[in-house]
Design brief:
By secondary structure, this protein is of the alpha/beta class. Helix content is 32%, strand content 18%.
Amino acid sequence: MAVGFLLIFLFGTSLAFPRFSFDDYLEAVARSRQARRIEEISKARYTHFDDMEEWMKEAAESRPDIVRLYSIGKSLQGRDLWVFEFRNGATTEPRPIGMPMMKYIGNMHGNEAVGKEMLIYLSHLFLTEGDSDPRLQKILNTTSLHIMPTMNPDGFERAKEGDCWGGDFASGRTNQNTVDLNRNFPDQFREPHLKRATLKEILRGRQPETKAVIEWVVKNPFVLSANLHGGAVVASYPFDNSKAGFPITGANSPSPDDSVFRMLAKTYSKNHAFMSDGITGCEQFPDGITNGASWYQLAGGMQDFNYVYSNCLELTLELSCCKYPPAEKLAQEWENNREALLKYIEAVHNGVKGVVIDAITEKPIPGAQISILGIGKDIISSSRGEYWRLTVPGKYSVVAKKKRVSNIANN
């Protein structure tokens, strides 16, 4: 009788339990699998493109509250140049006024593989601990962080694990057209006319990967950036080239923001496990930093392009003596770099920031020229009137101006 009563209760009371269709079941299983996939990033192997792409798509689908996935273009072989944007409300709300944009780019040279994995692990950290770690929560609340694990996916797929020194097409260093992407950007000393050129003229004749990054940089108000390489352990800063040109090496070529760049480089090196110690197992540098041209000169580099053609300050971070070390080294590389990667993100908040407004209309002024007296590098306000000017600690006189606009107030 008790069994019969129970059966009548279950089947006779239509409101006892919510309906759960087979489609609901499949969706729940899929969500569970996605969550497991996010957790399943291994530090015991390298992540090849197809696996990385699948993981990034599943991560973005699972956590639309904090991550947006987008592509800035394609490689020569048709692989997407994927980027994660991390911030709270990444897919549901526009970037808040005044929130700075910061970017990391990895694997520009396809055989310099450690940086790519570090950026995947950094993304994984935000995906899995961003809800519980107060430090990560603060970054998500205050910063628009953009992470591109690989700029040269074609080169990476050619590269061979364990090859520490390769520098040619077969090694994976170049793109599929045998072009070194870190020699393919506009150079202020070799192509000075391009500083007054249109974007179409700047892009002419460049590789698709380079074109994609150029457009990305000039169309977004990035404030800070780092480009992750391998083959040494050092933080390098602009300029990479000089008026003297080749073959001179060991000649310092400082930018107008040399003191800021040195501060940023030390932010990374001193928070790395040993970069600033000079005991790296390969070439040694005082404090683990160097001016690019002082180390060796190159034309067409990406960090100089960022500085000359945009508001963005970029470093080149060399993370490992061996360009493509065995995968068993990756877990230790993450421990070496984790704190430095986070500290460098937080450095985007150093300096002066605000919104340029018209004192009469109280409307933001886009395209205003922001100058700091005594520093020979101006920046331009964003389409919403925002500006961010990285500086070393001190007192500064800041001026904002724009032709044919009067009564400009600097807030």
